[in-house]
Amino acid sequence: MSTQTLNSQMLGPKGRAVGGTEHNWCRAVVGGTGIAVLAIFSSKNPDISRLQNALHKLQNSHPILRSRLHYNPSANAFSFVTSPSPFVQIKSFNLSTTCNIFENFCNQEDKNMSPLQLILEHELNQNVWNSSHPNNTSFSNQNDLFFASVYGLPTARWALVLRLHAAACDRTTAVSLLRELLTLMRTEEEETGSQQGQKEVMMNKGEVSLAIEDLIPKGKAKKTLWARGVDMLGYSVNSLRLTNLKFKDAKSPRSSQVVRLLISPDDTDRILTGCEARGIKLCGALGAAGLIAAHSSKCFSDHQKKKYGVVTLTDCRSILEPPLSNHNFGFYHSAVLNTHVIKGGEKLWELAKKMYTAFTNYKNCNKHLSDMADLNFLMCRAMENPGLTSSSSLRTSLISVFEDTVIDESNDQQKQVGLEDYMGCASAHGIAPSIAIFDTIRDGRLDCICVYPSPLHSREQMQELVDSMKCILVDAGNNNNADENES
Question: Are residues 266 and 187 in the same domain?
């Protein structure tokens, strides 16, 4: 599909129709899945004017950030409509307002959470895009994709929060966005005027990159009608047999909550050494730890077999035609759904190797490309018919992980802008897994943001699951050579 001109005026907005995966995110975000949030905790008081300039430069460099999502009710279709100039405006909350948000947002079990995590959860549940659903009484056919807020926090700290629609922001985009923003914030402090920024405004008139489906190499997504039917049936039947975590409350309105998994640098190094020795990536170990912990929490009788679903998200930029870089913002991940039978008593490294091998076998057969349309279709059907999922929970799997872990080391840029901490993830209280893991190794320390739907699952339940995962991972790292059956 070529880029479409949606406004015939010479200086008017440009854009294109959304692709299949982007369309799914437009549907999913209405229910609460796909609100991407990057929250930055800083000790340095922000200069709003300079920060605004930095964000406008980001919008100029990346047309998707200065686009709005347009919905055409008559065609039941979404499009990106791109503005020729940046428009994001920072919304500011002073300390008093932030404290009021905390008071209204928190309950007793949240009292020990950090201010940054409280702000993150608050933003994950600010859904301006649910008004784009035609059944909504406040229906709007056009919405921004990019929002920015600044929150005053106790002890002279502050939080900058960027909130984006998942159709415009996968994890690679979020990582690049953070790094580019830090560079621009430092540059803004060094510049004496805004002339350079104004020059960039006039120079950058690019268009939104094509959708992932339009960039898949020829033949890679090809599948016969018979094969597509067999795969669709397989996915459908398997999904009905998947085991879930115990649901605490499947009827009440849902929101996204977060549990953080932190592992010391020494333990992280041992876990990574174990992965490297077995030729696997960290995603295999994280997924295996999640399955072992979940199966143990169900208190099944010894060796009672249960089947679990694991979704692995992989960045396709490098294999597209033409290849894209990490600075091509948008959503360019695909999903691989594997199922695994757990009977209890599995060793982490053995299961991690098995899971990672299953994932790579799927990728080697190009199923992450050829099954993209099938999974998108089934995701839409589940959203339209929640009853197809257990207890109408809209759970598609037990856990989701990313193939590649983000590696981040502290640098002078971060220190210069006063960055002390940050958290990034996306909401998951609509159609999604029970726990979505966003992993980063920061200064050698494994830092996982684990998102789950509440009250479908409780914070206590998910904290216990994550604590169990941590123990399993650390224990495996301390016993790298214990399994004599492994090479």
Answer: no
